[in-house]
Fold:
Amino acid sequence: MTPLLELSGVNAAYGRIQALSDVSLTVEQGEIVTLIGANGAGKTTTMRVVSGVRPLSGGSITFDGDDISTLRADLRVVRGISQAPEGRGIFPGMTVLENLDMGAYSRRDRKNLPAEMDAVFELFPRLAERRTQVGGTLSGGEQQMLAIGRALMAKPRLLLLDEPSMGLAPQFIAQIFKIISEINRQQGVTVLLVEQNAQQALSRAHRAYVMETGRITRAGTGAELLADPAIKDAYLGVA
Ligand code: ATP
Structure:
């Protein structure tokens, strides 16, 4: 079966800084795949080349069998790749409802939008209570929920989540990961997830890749990597 997403030998650079070197990975339809690695390993850059906001300097990216290596970012959204960016990136002056509506801007089929907004509110009841509140006054956890909800309004086939647990209180972290699993299982959305919280990410992911200084150095199922002493030592905070 053709993978939903495939990166083959991808290189990317910021000026003279080589951020990605020969990165190859696949994400199959229906999976949650996570990228873990230290600060500066290249995880966010990998997400950026997939969403199309950074160009490749080598290699290729295919989505559902089509080469999208040079496709514009907005056209990737139309194809079904939607990102909830690191640092959240919601519209602070717009209400929750307006933010969610913006998430659907790329869609031609707008007739099911009210039902889909209800589905987002079912996943995130807190957002339903705050639907007329402006985004900038939401708490950090609520803004993260709104960013994910907004990405879902594009009706993605592949949802890119960059550090969804960043800056969240522990009770929110567990909740966000539970919701990611629900989005994957109930809505059939494939997920590529970048996380510092390796423990949670590996326990929710079907498969995972480890990145070090711009390269993929390990791959395996979430369970395999969780059980690996070297991974535990480096990323899970226990020897
Ligand atoms: P973190 O977990 O800290 O977010 P990361 O694994 O997501 O790290 P990237 O943000 O992809 O790592 O960064 C990979 C490399 O590219 C780093 O060396 C970083 O300093 C560099 N880099 C990232 N963004 C830029 C930029 N806008 N300009 C120059 N260098 C950059």
About this structure: The mean pLDDT is 91. Residues 14, 17, 19, 37, 39-45 surround adenosine-5'-triphosphate (CB under 6 Å).
